[in-house]
Amino acid sequence: MRVRKQNGATDGRRPRAAATEARELESAAGDRQFVTAMARGLDILDAFTSRDRMLGNQELAERTGLPKATVSRLTYTLTRLGYLSYLPRFAKYRLGFRAVVLGQVALASLDVRDIARPEMLRLAEAVDATVALGSRDRLSMVYIEHCPPPSAVALQLGIGSRIPLATTAMGRAYYALAKPEERAEIDAALAARDPERWPEIRRGLNEAVDMHAALGFTVSIGDWNPEVHAAGAAFVLPSGAIMGLTCGAPAFLLSRERVLQEAGPKLAVSARQIEALVQRDA
Question: Looking at residue 240, what is its pLDDT?
């Protein structure tokens, strides 16, 4: 059995590509170092997901907010370079081999995955829950390592999955360790994206900061997906980058009490152990 995952958008609308948001923010700030043409190309690549592996120019235009004529030129260029592949039968594109290689190289360069995986596997077996490692990408958290539980019941997520920062346990744990200036940046973006829900979202984030400081973990009890309960913890790499851990399962298997009394405390211990190993090997 698998539990359906929810869309990462906070307002129920189709989320804009992350590169579009970055381009708008940088352009608004008048950053002369920001290359808009490059951002648009990355915007196209960023529109593809594990659920939407094939997209046409019209779909890409809708997701990125770019004119269709611009999208057509970008997809042509990206195809010539090997970052997209065109499928004539469907009149759509998918990520090309060069994009896949680039992603694999990026993952392989993250040594923390190899260090964290044994502890993540031990925790997944101990709690019988999914354990994942990820980091921030704007208003999302992206999985870079994933350990399913020994049972057949698992969350339908994996490496590369993108989940919202504001309402997930992993995202809240990341926020708890972020510096004040980074929190302010996240706050401004969340408030702009969903002004109506922002007061509620802010309360959840503030509670997470206090909880992580006191207990070493945060929780999301149906806040992102009503069918999912999870705990989150974060740690800092020698480089200063923050990594988030989460331990979650379907709500009928992982009750609120188990999250608070078992999954959360064990996850906090695992986060500290992984952080110590990373620091030792630095």
Answer: 93
Contacts of 245 (CB under 8 A, 6+ apart): 116, 120, 131, 132, 133, 170, 173, 232, 233, 234, 235, 267, 270, 271, 274
Phi (first) and psi of residue 145, to 5 degrees? -150, 150
- Per-10-residue mean pLDDT of the chain, 282 residues long, equals 40 45 53 84 88 92 93 95 94 90 70 92 96 93 92 75 95 97 96 94 97 98 95 95 95 95 98 93 71
179: amino acid identity, one letter? K
CATH number of the domain that residue 13 is part of: 1.10.10.10
What is the gyration radius of the CA atoms in the chain, in angstroms? Answer: 19
Q: Are strands 154-155 and 140-147 parallel, antiparallel or unpaired?
A: unpaired
Residue 146, beta-bridge partner list: 132
Give one DSSP letter per residue of 189-252, joined into a string: HHHHH-TTTHHHHHHHHHHHHHHHHHHS-EEEESSS-TTEEEEEEEEE-TTS-EEEEEEEEETT
Q: Which residue, among 69, 80, 110, has the nearest Cα to 243 in the 3D structure?
A: 110
Same domain, 155 and 249: yes
**Which of 102, 137, 165 is at the close of a domain?**
102
Q: Which pLDDT score is estimated for 36?
A: 86
State how far Cα 234 lies from the chain centre.
Answer: 14
> How much helix, strand and coil, in percent to the nearest 5, is found in the chain?
50, 20, 30
d(CA 228, CA 153): 12
State which of 56, 86, 102 marks the end of a domain: 102
CA nearest 149: which of 121, 132, 124?
124
Q: How far is CA 183 from CA 175, 180, 186, 209, 233, in A?
A: 7, 5, 5, 11, 17
**Which residues constitute the domain of residue 201?**
110-281
- Read off the pTM: 0.76
The pLDDT score that the predictor gives to residue 5 is 44
